[in-house]
Sequence to fold (166 residues):
Amino acid sequence: MFNDIGALELLTLGVLAVLVFGPDKLPKLIQDVTRTVRKIREFSDSAKEDIRSELGPQFKDFEFEDLNPKTFVRKQLMDGNDDLGLKEIRESFDLRKEMADVTDVVNGRTPAASDTANSAANGSAGASADGSTTSLTKTGDTVPDLLKKTPPQKQPERPPFDADAT
Fold:
């Protein structure tokens, strides 16, 4: 809560406290505030101990920080090791390479031999086990240039409008 207070802000609070309470009342005020904070901490610690004693010995490892949903999920699912295999998936998936392969296939170019070998090793959908790429076009078809504009198609002639027909 107070972790983001900087040095300049603390200095400003100190100057304001001196101006508002005065130098003669400020030490007494600081003692009262520290005493109150100490009592609140003692009350909190005793409440935690009471809850732990009431829960019994089966909950001796219970930590109140585990009640935070993020901490609970992290502790239960990840548990310090990577059982889900997410690390392997993140390391094996290269989005730039995959996108380059897709654009090469769309443009009709074949990826380099080293790229197909890497994609076959990574289990890419575009490469088969023998290292050759699968073509998305039929054999004998010409590959259309998708970047070239096609001439506009002539619109069919519309029938005459008849207001009485509607």
DSSP finds five helices and no strands in the chain. The two ends are 70 Å apart (CA to CA). The first helix runs from residue 7 to 55.
